[in-house]
């Protein structure tokens, strides 16, 4: 290659040499003298050498990769750093940002960063990208972002003509199909995560089929709202659904309170009944055991046992019957015999 470049200065095949070029210049401006001609030749040579020196090296940034072509054919990929190449257009370099996360915006456009670091957006509406028809025949406005990286610079540059445009068309097609298979209420509420996951997987599968050298990082949905024309109707529907959810939650709360209370009361009643039954059974067994013991004593000494039982019975009965009166026929009135209800008088020293 170097020999072919040097042969061009000797008048051989290839581009016109310097003498032919200067001859053209002289034929146009006339042959006034040899001094200006030598100066012009020297200037041309210096410019050619300067151009060759300046075009013989290049620098690749950390987030880039350099695809090097020689006479239009790719010969390799260079990593970040300083590199050299054959000048005079023999080697050409294309820089590809393989380490940078790129994005495609749908339904909106970011215009830059304003004061305070806040992102500014274009006021233009992109309804041709964002308006979609859901599975229940409702119109919905969906905005989303596809973030991707270039995994293979050569495939990205030469596998297809417009890889970024292809990615954009595929992303819009996939998103419209997924949203069209779901209900509008799901897209607005609980279906965002599912839509993002499905869209990312399907877009990546299609880009792999095209072998475009693009790797999808994430698909993020931004604003998902109904169109302005039907916004009031959607708001009323959402308010009704929220009211329904609120009433269902309150009813469920009441159920969660009442059922445990009823179950607790039932368990308490059952426990009280079981305790009462156990008490009665134990009391009956105790009475039966006591009666059996008294019977055994009675069989051994009937008279003594009979007297003891009689006295014990009187001891239990007399405190509760009040005064005991003895009435005799022919007497003026009843005389109290025993004043059992009168409190006992304390004993005094004189009585002793």
How does this structure look, described?
HflC and HflK could encode or regulate a protease. This is Protein HflK. It is found in: Membrane. The chain crosses the membrane at residues 37-60. The chain has 352 residues and is of the alpha+beta class. Among the domains are: 1-54, no CATH class; 57-100, no CATH class; 102-226, Tetrahydropterin Synthase, Chain A. It has 10 helices and 13 strands. The strands form 5 sheets. Strands 6, 9, 10 and 11 form a 4-stranded antiparallel beta sheet that branches. The model is unreliable at 1-16 and 29-33 (pLDDT under 50).
Q: In terms of topology, how is this protein built?
A:
Layout: H1 2-7, H2 18-29, H3 34-54, E1 57-60, E2 65-70, E3 73-78, E4 81-84, E5 91-96, E6 102-106, E7 110-113, E8 119-121, H4 127-130, E9 131-133, E10 139-150, H5 153-158, H6 163-180, H7 184-188, H8 192-210, E11 214-225, H9 231-300, H10 302-317, E12 324-326, E13 335-338
Antiparallel strand pairs: 1-4, 2-3, 2-5, 6-10, 7-8, 9-10, 10-11, 12-13
Helix pairs in contact: 2-3, 6-8, 9-10
Membrane topology: Single-pass membrane protein
GO cellular component, one term: membrane
Function: HflC and HflK could encode or regulate a protease.
Summarize the structure.
It contains ten helices and 13 strands. With 352 residues, the protein is α+β, with helices and mostly antiparallel strands. The strands form five sheets. Strands 6, 9, 10 and 11 form a four-stranded antiparallel sheet that branches. A three-stranded antiparallel sheet has the order 3-2-5, with no helix packed on it. The chain has a two-stranded antiparallel sheet with strand order 1-4.
């Amino acid at each position: 290659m170097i020999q072919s470049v040097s042969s061009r200065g000797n008048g051989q095949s290839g581009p016109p040499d310097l003498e032919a070029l200067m001859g053209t210049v002289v034929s146009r401006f006339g042959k006034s003298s040899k001094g200006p001609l030598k100066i012009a030749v020297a200037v041309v040579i210096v410019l050619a050498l300067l151009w060759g020196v300046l075009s013989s090296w290049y620098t690749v940034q950390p987030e880039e990769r350099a695809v090097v072509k020689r006479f239009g054919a790719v010969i390799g990929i260079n990593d970040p750093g300083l590199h050299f190449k054959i000048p005079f257009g023999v080697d050409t370099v294309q820089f590809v940002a393989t380490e940078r996360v790129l994005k495609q915006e749908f339904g909106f456009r970011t215009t830059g960063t304003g004061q305070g670091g806040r992102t500014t957006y274009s006021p233009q509406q992109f309804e041709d990208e964002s308006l979609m028809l859901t599975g229940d025949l409702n119109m919905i406005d969906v905005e989303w972002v596809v973030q991707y990286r270039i995994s293979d610079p050569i495939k990205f540059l030469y596998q297809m003509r417009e890889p970024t445009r292809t990615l954009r068309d595929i992303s819009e097609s996939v998103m419209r199909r997924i949203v069209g298979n779901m209900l509008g209420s799901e897209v607005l509420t609980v279906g965002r995560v599912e839509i993002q996951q499905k869209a990312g997987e399907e877009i990546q599968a299609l880009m792999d089929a095209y072998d475009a050298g693009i790797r999808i990082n994430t698909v993020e949905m931004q604003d998902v709202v109904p169109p302005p024309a039907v916004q009031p109707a959607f708001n009323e529907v959402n308010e009704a659904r929220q009211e329904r959810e609120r009433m269902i939650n309150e009813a469920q709360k009441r159920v969660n309170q009442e059922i445990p209370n009823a179950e607790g009361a039932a368990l308490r009643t059952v426990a009280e009944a079981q305790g009462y039954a156990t008490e009665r059974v134990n009391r009956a067994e105790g009475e039966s055991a006591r009666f059996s013991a008294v019977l055994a004593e009675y069989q051994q000494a009937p008279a003594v046992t009979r007297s003891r039982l009689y006295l014990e019975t009187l001891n239990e009965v007399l405190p509760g019957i009040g005064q005991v009166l003895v009435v005799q026929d022919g007497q003026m009135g009843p005389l109290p015999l025993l004043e059992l209800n009168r409190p006992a008088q304390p004993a005094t020293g004189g009585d002793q």
